[in-house]
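This is your field. Have a critical look at both lines of this record:
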Amino acid sequence: MNISDINIYPIKSLAGVTVDSALVEDRGLQFDRRWMLVDWKRKFITQREVPRMAAVKIAVVGDGLTASIDGNTIAIPAHPATGKTATVKIWSSSVKAEFYPDEINHWFSNLLETGCRLVLMPETTKRKVNPFYAVRRFEDTVSFADGYPFLLIGEGSLEELNSRLERPVPMNRFRPNFVVAGSEPFAEDDWRRIRIGSSEFYVVKPCGRCVITTVDQATGKIDGKDPLKTLSTFRNRNGKVLFGQNLIAHATGGTIRNGDDVEVLERK
């Protein structure tokens, strides 16, 4: 088995960026979900509420980003430099974030047609992983991702799902960080600890899926009820529709490269 695709999602719920390699950090891959859009109540916004977010393309430029949609592009510096900080809400977490200047907020608000502000998670913010699934209780941290630092899916799992769909869907509907080639369908369900290249990861929790899987990631429009509807017929566990596995790194500092071998060190 090997890694066939590596993806990061610098601004939560906007388009992903496919990379050849990525540095493993405690909160996830470098640049992954370090930025986020919030509403005027400082609550996170995703494709669940604004599907059009998927159509905003992101590029990493140095330590900063560019965002573009419908021919409009804006540069986003690595740090806001506004001095404005406040607590923002993401699921059950309340964390301190830095706010970008109004010109950037207006750009996103106008093009997404919803009032929003861009925030950065500073290095000093430590958002904790659910301690029930943490490897190092109360110490494991995560970025603005829904709950865990890394998400892995096997190509075989998508192939099995697509064999049940009238219209196949691409892997980007599920927004994984790591895609594995050469594994059997849903083989990742049975993994407890794996090695990717020289980095080890704990497989801590299956990923419960939501309506974002029905959003066409190229157009930013909802595309029917699948694949979520079909997934629910054979991947429903205790009311959760499961697809993919959440990971926590054993150690940070390693680099994952496209083509790296994937080895199962321990099974459940």
In short: The chain is about 10% helix and 40% strand. Residues 102-112 form the longest helix (11 residues).
